[in-house]
Amino acid sequence: MRRSLLALVVATGVTAGTLSATGPAAAADRWKVPAKASITIRGHGYGHGHGMSQYGAEGAARKGLNHRRILAFYYPRTKVGSIGGSVSVLITGDTTDDLVVVARPGLTVRDSRTRKRVTLPRNGASLWRVAPTAGGVDRVAYYKGGWHKWRDLKGWGEFAAGKKPVTLVTPGGRAAYRGRLRAVPVSAGSRERDTVNVTSLENYVKGVVPREIPATWSPAAVRAQAVAARTYAAHERAHPRTSRYHVYDDTRSQVYGGKSAEHPASNRAVNATRKEIRTWRGAPAFTQFSSSNGGWTSAGSVPYLTAKKDPYDGWSGNPNHAWRVRVTDTRIEKAFPRVGNLRKIVVTRRDGHGQWGGRVQTVRLVGSGGSVTTTGDDFRSRLGLRSEWVTFAVRSR
Description:
397 residues, alpha+beta, 3 domains, 7-stranded mixed beta sheet, 25 strands, 18% helix
């Protein structure tokens, strides 16, 4: 969906200029590029700018807005609603086809075919595993000086420990998850497995919020994030990615770390907003959010993701409200090799909101090899910029 805000706070900020709508791209959006050039790129915001600005939510909280007023500003015309149930999450860090968990009291395994759940013996094992075999069955085994067969399943396996968390072992380390951990075939008859965490919506949000914003920010901002995250998950649950899971645990959905990611302060925010969501026409809204909008929200794919000036995003603690980076012409040429030697940058269209005419929608790069026209989002992605709301200054080097 977008990079986690916590990964963005290391960015270096600069003082923001006055933001004003200046219309679409104008003739001034052209820069000649000498043979050896140094290009300063100035920008606003970090991320797509749709919906809630996370830094803006904190800025609004510091001005006294409660979480519902913050959400009403960023998702206008949505209403307060309530929802519960569970959500299934793909654990992308578990890249192997076996599902390995740490032994603990009360650990159970469930067979998807028979639907029977059995408590695993306390036999001194340190680990338990479900893995597909060459014979086409899933086998439960335990580790005690080596792997030993316990029994075979008729379907795929699922570990749980009642209301206690289960610790998953992955190639990258260990993490605890509430709810159940499943080893799900990627397709019918396949020996490849996805690890999926099935947990309550409330426990899922507890594992999301501190990965998305600092848990110790103003309570109103953290509560706004909790409601936005819960709503986003409920919307994705209604439009699942596959039949095997509803959401990813990374920025394709929301960053989720299970119980290991939880923080007492963000858990209080989740509990204080229990089951609360934003709705549009009676259904969970598409509550997109990003680190910073730079002073203007950008229009999204639904009526309540509107473009408007944001008076809350530009508080002194936001390093992404305004920024600048310096690149060489060579870096742009490597990102767009068809251009050859870069000779001109032409912004052909902006969204019309804010300084310089707003976010770049299309840009043309002209060089010795010809010209390439691309979107502002693609330009941003290839150069690793924080947003597509940019302008340029070019000089010889």
